[in-house]
Predict the 3D structure of the following.
Amino acid sequence: MKTSFIPVFVVVLGIYLLINVYVFVRGWQALEIGMRHRWIYATVAPLLIFSFIGAQFLKQLFDSPVIDFFWLLGSLWLAVLLYLFLSVALIDLVRVILRGFGEKPAELYAHYGTIKFALFCLLTIGAVALLSVGYYNATRPEVNTVNIEINKRAAGRNSLNIVMASDLHLGCINGRSALQRWVNTINDLQPDIVLLPGDVFDDNPASVERKKLGNILEEIKAPLGVYFAPGNHESYGNLPRAVEYLKAHRVHVLLDEVVLVDSSFYVAGRLDRSSERNGVMRKSLQDLLETALDNEKPVFLLDHQPVGLNEAMEAGIDLQVSGHTHRGQLWPFSLLTKRIYELDWGYRQKGNTHFYVSQGVGTWGPPVRLGTRSEIVQLKVRFGS
């Protein structure tokens, strides 16, 4: 672990443990009426709480299916914990408000233990229901199609069928079955070209290598190729190893590079902003585009994080595709991403530049989405004559 991340990690870990203690204590109190069940609760709860932390440490050291299991278990607990915390905090807030109106009636005191136990059961059932809905939203991506008009000529082409898939987060959770479904969907859309704007890997490529996911990536059928630019998770993991792996499986990797495709248009890929934490400064867009010799040809940009949209517009980019935000993935985080990013999801045009920010086809942490939906994006581009 990089030393610069240690203070942040300690703070996040402390908050995580405090929230878990709060929820655990409230659950323990609610089980007062069922004392004989408390030993089950006291056994299962620590397993859930420490699965994520343990798997996070261990998967930096070695890779195995056992770690995959505990990573999945701990990740699912993160989603459950979020909504249990919000629910318990709301219940406690209501209790405080009711106390302000005077003492509880005697009959309420008499059934207080039963009420707490019933709430415990209700919240548990609610958590399972939310997980089920969220799992469906995360594992059954929808296809969103956008028609785009670009007033430039692309030699020999009137149109281009682009399919974009961001944030696959391949690794411990998103494995062979998930990737196969995504590749099948991509191929059904009959793309001319496929763009992968970052976070193909969850972090360390070891799990992807063990599961031989590159063989499935090779099944993508796109006459003009598959193009990738890195995201923050490739930077957190092992970027050189990820690049080598993708190249070995016929994916064109763009690290602050621009390539001319089919003598018709340019595809540019930027290093992610997070690479600067590793001492690697990415080029400005102006410097990057100096290698695009023909300004009259369309330019498509892969930039993982959707920040600095005006920079792309001023640089004359025709279409930028991004991901990263997951649109919050779990409500209420979607409210935060709306405030943080100028565009946290969907299509927008600024000047002559078109933008699409994807929610991502995969997920980070829990394979759960609530208030959002995994997506694969089809961009049907028509060029000017």
In short: Residues 143-383 form a domain with the Purple Acid Phosphatase; chain A, domain 2 fold (CATH 3.60.21.10). The first strand starts at residue 142 and ends at 150.
